[in-house]
């Protein structure tokens, strides 16, 4: 049972993303703009993940380019990175924004912005398309920029909130690369 969830998570995520978008106006009607934008990053990310992971494209691409042909990302690693690592981080960011400080919603925003920039950097480095590039560039960057602007307008996007969000988002992406490098070094032995 878990093997099928680990293998096919992206399809349930894409459908859940569509459902969340349909219900979005109802769910967020009484929320502040920054909190609404924080939550919006979850269904947006789920749709991005469909472009990225349909037919296991990203894992295959990543193992080919970053892993040098070795399996540095397994299906379990991809599941862990994307379900608890992305959906979970966005959910926690949304709860923190609602209950602690709305500026912590920027964690969800910068998670997407950094991911979009990584996709663009990867495309420039390898001079080719990578799975997730289109939605990373056309959704994450403009929606992220708009979200950051709205956080600033509301007074909740101060230096501390920005710094925390950037550090968390960069750390998550660095941890993925470090994991892949360590796995690749282990496989080389």
Outline the structure in words.
The protein has about 190 residues and is mostly helical. It has one domain. It contains seven helices and no strands. It has helices at about 1-30, 35-55, 55-65, 75-100, 105-125, 135-155, 160-189. About 35% of the residues are buried. The mean pLDDT is about 95.
Descriptive keywords:
HXXEE domain-containing protein, 189 residues, transmembrane helix, mainly alpha, transmembrane
What structural class is derived from the secondary structure elements? mainly alpha
Q: List the domain count as a whole number.
A: 1
User: What percent of residues adopt helix (DSSP H or I)?
Assistant: over 70%
Q: Give a count of the beta strands, DSSP E runs of length 2 or more.
A: 0
Oligomer designation: single chain
Q: Describe the biggest sheet?
A: none
The global form is globular
Distance between the amino and carboxyl termini: 33 Å
Radius of gyration over C-alpha positions, nearest whole angstrom: 17 Å
Order of helices and strands: HHHHHHH
Beta-strand content estimate: under 5%
- Let me know the average pLDDT: 94
Number of helices: 7
Query: Are there runs of 5+ residues with pLDDT below 50, and where?
Result: none
Keywords: Membrane, Transmembrane, Transmembrane helix
Protein name: HXXEE domain-containing protein
Pfam families: HXXEE
Transmembrane segments: 7-27, 72-98, 104-126, 159-180
């Amino acid at each position: 049972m878990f093997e099928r969830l680990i293998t096919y998570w992206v399809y349930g995520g894409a459908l859940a993303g569509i459902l969340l978008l349909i219900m979005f106006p109802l769910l967020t009607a009484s929320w502040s703009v920054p909190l609404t934008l924080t939550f919006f990053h979850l269904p947006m990310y789920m749709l991005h993940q469909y472009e990225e992971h349909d037919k296991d494209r990203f894992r295959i691409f990543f193992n080919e380019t970053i892993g040098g042909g070795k399996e540095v990302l397994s299906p379990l690693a991809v599941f862990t990175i994307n379900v608890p690592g992305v959906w979970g981080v966005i959910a926690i960011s949304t709860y923190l924004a609602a209950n602690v400080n709305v500026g912590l919603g920027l964690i969800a925003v910068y998670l997407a912005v950094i991911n979009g920039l990584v996709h663009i950097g990867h495309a420039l480095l390898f001079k080719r398309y990578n799975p997730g590039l289109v939605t990373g560039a056309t959704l994450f960057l403009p929606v992220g920029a708009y979200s950051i602007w709205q956080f600033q307008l509301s007074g909740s996007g101060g230096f501390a909130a920005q710094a925390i969000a950037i550090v968390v988002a960069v750390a998550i992406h660095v941890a993925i690369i470090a994991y892949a490098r360590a796995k690749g070094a282990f496989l080389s032995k």
